[in-house]
Amino acid sequence: MVVEYTKVHKYDKQSPRQLLKHYKVVVPSSQIAQNAPIVYIHGGAWVGESHTYNELGPLIDKLDLKLNNGAYTTGEQLTEIQFFVLDYRMSPEVVHPHHILDVLHALSFVYKLGIHKVSLIGHSAGSTMCTQILEYKTFLGFYDIEFTLPVPDIDSIVFLDGIFDISKMLEEYPSYLQEFVEIAFRSEQDWSEKCNMLHYKMTSDTKKEIRDKFNSLRKTIIAHSTKDELLSTRQPTEFCKWLDQLPYTDYKYIVQDMGTHNETYKSDGLVSIIIQHLLH
Ligand SMILES: N[C@@H](CC(=O)c1ccccc1NC=O)C(=O)O
Questions:
Q1: What percent of the chain has pLDDT over 70?
Q2: CATH 3.40.50.1820 fits 5-278, yes or no
Q3: Model pTM?
Q4: Ligand 1 pocket, residues with Cβ under 6 angstroms
């Protein structure tokens, strides 16, 4: 084992949810080729208490076991991998766009620790947030909010069992309107037009701006579990279609058994994706 260090930081003072957990894991340098710190953004459909900064603990333990499972001598070259697991205020404590504003504040806290490039993993609504992070100036503009703190550049993104298009999700799962969409968003316009770039009325300039953002990523991974009981593959396939028309086709779409919706972030499948795509 070597989870060498964990520390929970408070990145803001309005709520006990404004916390992030920082992990440092030491592994033999020969096991990895790339090493941008990894930021994980949990889901939970913007509501409730069940997802926290502790959510990635089991996966980090698995990754640690996998990369540290051979005897290695004290002479071996070692490398530190860092994880930041973000928590943020949920509804009804706040409504959109304050969940993602908390996430941006958490990212600026990471930047202040001297980390200027990270990879992102977003689970479910955390995937929606990854799309928002690429374009935060545009959508915050709809709310006349300016966010001027520096945040790290993005190396790569893993979208894990994500929500990308709330309107299409509601066509398939109408009950989600009352279960969480109406609680997390103040109005229909907020979730149908102003939530993320999939719904911006795109001029060729905005299209180019978004295409350039995706082109600047080293890896774009869209992963979905065949056993996800809360979201079908319609969300990721629609997202892939939307990326195709940008046009941006340099992504990898992985559909495999990673367990149920809330098992995906502890799955062996995600461990492999991290090793193969973020650490190589
Ligand atoms: N709050 C519930 C349900 C949930 O998170 C959810 C339900 C349907 C579709 C997506 C969901 N989560 C996305 O972040 C949970 O924690 O599993």
A1: 98
A2: yes
A3: 0.97
A4: 43-45, 48, 50-51, 124-125, 163, 176, 230-231, 262
